[in-house]
Amino acid sequence: MRMSKPTVYLLDSNIFIQAKNQYYHFDIAPGFWDALKVIADEGSIISIDRVRDELINAKDELAEWVSDNLNGAFHSTRDEAVYKKYQELQAWARDEKQYSQPAIHEFARAENADPWVVAFALAYGCTLVTHESYDPNIRKKIPIPNVGRAFGLKTINTFTMLRQLGVKLN
User: Fold this and answer.
1) Phi and psi at residue 78, in whole multiples of 5°?
2) Beta pairing class for 9-11 and 127-129
3) 97-113: per-residue pLDDT in tens?
4) Using CA atoms, how far apart are residues 4 and 102, in angstroms rounded to an integer?
5) Which neighbouring-strand residues pair with 129?
6) pLDDT one-digit tens code per residue, 62-74
7) Are the beta carbons of 93 and 99 closer than 8 angstroms?
8) Edge-to-edge strands of the sheet including 9-11?
């Protein structure tokens, strides 16, 4: 008998930021944030150190919440498997004719968490959760779903993740 491995969802920065700024603000939907903490404690959602740094550097309510609630959910990108995938992604971006040089340069910028999120998801078989959308014609940016499609990585949004996890916000 072969048992399937449970899905681990890797969250992009924009999942947290858009929730806070738009539809799940802390004072409107505290149940969303409670659910994130529970799911993270169970190990079903994770993110990476570079996303944490991006969120914490904002020094706002979200930064405080992340520091207080999700410390164990952020994984290091400083490992060989992630670095190898990161190198593959950078080589792919340099060879892609679709994207402008500024887009390729931005994708390679050390502070850009996007390629690291993708590299980690590829290295560890995670489903990547982002609010970016696939765009076959974009030139000025390299969206996460475009990279994901090129590498066979599954990308979904917050709402799909919540449904797949069976989360109900009461």
Assistant:
1) -90, 70
2) parallel
3) 999 999 999 999 988 99
4) 41
5) 11, 156
6) 999 999 999 899 9
7) yes
8) 74-75, 45-48, 9-11, 127-129, 155-156
